[in-house]
Task: structure prediction
Amino acid sequence: MNYYQLLWKNLLANPLKTVFNVMLVSIAVSLVLIILLINKQFGNHLGKSSENIDFVLAAKGSPLQSVLCNVLQVDAPTGNIKVGEIQAFLNPAHPLIKNCAPLALGDSYKSYRLVGTSLEYFEWQNLKLSEGRFFDKENELVIGNEIAIREKIKLGDTLHSNHGLVNLDMEHEHALIVTGILTKTNSISNKLIFTSISTYWDEHNHSTDSDSNSMHESPILRNQDLIQKDKEISSVLIQFRGKNIQTLNFGRSINENTNIMGVYPAIEISRLYELTNSASDLLYWIAVILGILSSIALFINLVQALEDRKLELAIMRIGGARPGLIFKLLIAEGLSISLIGCLFGLVLAHGFLYIASQYFQLGSKYGISGTYFMPEEIFIVILTLICGMFASIIPAYRAYKQDIASTISN
Amino acid sequence: MISTSGLVKTFDNNKSIAFPDLHVAKSDTLLIHGPSGSGKTSLLHILSGLMRQSQGSVDIEGNKLEKLSDVQLDEFRGKNIGICLQRPVFIKSLTVIENLLIAQRIAHQNPDKNYCMSLLNEMGLTQCKDQLTNKLSQGEQQRLMFIRALINKPKLILADEPSSSLDDHNTDLLTNLMIQHSSLHEATLIVVSHDDRLKKMFDNKILLS
Result:
């Protein structure tokens, strides 16, 4: 029989009270952690999705919507822009532009977005194939890793895309064939379907004009192939060669002098962050208040437990226990409850996010997974232990100062 | 073995009690008898080192309690004094045997299960060893408390009103058991009580008034 066994038996002696205390701590910890994990992972996701995209050219409209649509792939396009308006930027000799890729958006397959783009996009975003090859003809597709797994799509499978971004809209009649599957990444590419811009145009030609069977003479695979076409696309993503005063003026000059809109994703994403931050701050403070309440409840329960066990502790003192031992035992009880509650809270938070990310596809949409661990979690453990320590320090001190003679006389 | 001289306790309300001097030899027994409020329990607390006297001295086998620091006093009490309270109190979460083992640990002794079992056997409590203490009868709890007082082989056993909640039969049984086993384990026994039934069972008595 040692003091650890005594501690454990004391915790088990009042299982309901112990479970209640552990639950309070674990709920508070898991809430704080869920909010922090979501914030952190969402922030990482936003950062990663827009990592090397410095600028977006799109139809005039809401700049935020344009970034949401073209960079984060969560909103509808602001409209179409004529190739003629942007062809200067597709020139590889452009002095400011290092990388760029046109995007044609607006179609989907089972709610996965179909993105018409050029092969430069894959090179720029460093997207590799896990199997198959990139499209080199019309009606060929490269799909994200998650879609292949979720929808059980293999190389050579055919699918029909929908007009619009939801599953309810009209289906295009043309069958598209899967020629490549991308490797898994931490970005939105996992849940995107890529094809050539010309495939996109063809889909729409067939849909809107059934008499026209005009296929393109050659598929548009590279940025250069796009120049001189009298067609429309949704946007152009751009990475500058460097960031300087010219790149800053670039956006203003486009917005003032042309009919298209230029947007810096970094600015819009920080605006988006500000908008969502106040809501997550509120949730965070609710969780912190819950944490404080659970510490107070733990404190009240420990004071109550001390009253119930006054004589027991007196008996230990009579048997030769020093006041310091009693103090340490009570602190250890508070710390144990906090530690167990905290560990449960960690499991609960990660478990909740794991299940939620599976059910609501938070992983691919917002980059949220249950298996992501933050270094800050160790601070949450330490903070919880400090709270447990504070909650038990007053009862422990009272036990430490207990007058044994008067306790047993009463 | 234990002797006191000139003990006086002054309480917060300035009330003072002067206690008669005690001299009890090793393995001997003593009954301190007196009505409520006569200071019996205060004397027991002073003898056990749970309360400091205002004046006078307590000597247990050459150790003057008033010279020991609080920490030394706790250690001395754990090793040398066993105490039976008026009402049996145990650590509720532990079984009978665990209460005895932790009592040894608290007194800085190595837990000795065999010795615990031999004492339980002596007092007829072997079958209760794995029960929680609140499942025991009143008489069994009183006996267990006496075992706990004996567990660290003390030189002195102090009992505070041990018979207050027992009927005549159980009072005789417990008191005889305490007298016999204190002497068997070479411990001095001092009982503090207002119970007249105990008077006939002790040769040495001191009356507090």
Observations:
- Chain B touches chain A through 33 residues (CB under 8 Å).
- The first helix of chain B runs from residue 40 to 48.
